[in-house]
Amino acid sequence: MSFNELKIFIAEARRNTYASGKNSVEKPLLIGSHQFEYRKGDYFYRDIYFGGEENFTGQEVVYQSDKPIWSMVYCGSVEPEEISDFLKNSLLNLSKKCRFGEECEFEEGDLKYEDKGEGTLERFIGKEQIFIKDESVYELNYQGVLISK
Fold it and tell me: What share of the chain in percent tops pLDDT 90?
């Protein structure tokens, strides 16, 4: 496995799950959760999250040949309904950079998505935010790690 191959798969899985609204699991493994899954070749991606009225928390895990190799945990504030499409559009446009510990931005009208992170695919941390006219209206904190090479 190469880090580049893994990162490409994660970006593709994210584009084909939450960000696009595809590959939602009808009966999630954990009661009260939402679950997305994506498979390609030997790789399998699962994103499980719990959403409340104000906050959410979740975890992404990537398996290779049924062995967990990478994971990211996240939590944050529930995005206001009026920015939900903008968040998903940002994630689709920045899938190769966002939530990997890199820095990236996306703007559309008065809305601005910003991801500030540090580290590498092996161990990273970051925070993404959405602003409306410089006022923060959404935030997600994340941390990820390579479990096995």
Answer: 91
